[in-house]
Amino acid sequence: MKTIEEFIDKLVEEKGFDTTDPEVITQIKADLLSRFEDRVNAMIINNVPEEMLGDFEKVADSGNDDEMEAFIKKNVPDFEEKLATEMISFKSMYLG
Which of 30, 43, 42 is CA-nearest to residue 4? Predict the structure, then answer.
């Protein structure tokens, strides 16, 4: 998701690292993206109805981003609000 990548870029910028080494910054962004995606995935799993978890696993394993997005929008109530809450929490933890 482009929005999440932009969010991570902004976090790294706000943190203001003292390094200008592009490899270090790339690694930091990759680590943050992985950590944030883990949090979002946990939030999704906690909010998908239990009877839909098997279907969620199949869609997640398919690697099809469009199918994943459609599944989440259909099966996770208030996903956008929950994602925003995760972003705020992650930012606070990271910059705090």
Answer: 30
pTM, entire model? 0.85
pLDDT digits (tens, 9 = 90+) for 16-32: 887 778 999 999 999 99
Which residues span the domain enclosing 76? 2-95
The answer to whether residues 95 and 15 touch, using CB atoms and an 8 Å cutoff, is yes
Render the chain in DSSP notation, one character per residue: -HHHHHHHHHHHHHHT-S---HHHHHHHHHHHHHHHHHHHHHHHHHHS-GGGHHHHHHHHHHT-HHHHHHHHHHHSTTHHHHHHHHHHHHHHHHH-
The answer to whether the beta carbons of residues 33 and 8 sit under 8 Å apart is yes
When divided into structural domains, the chain yields a total of 1
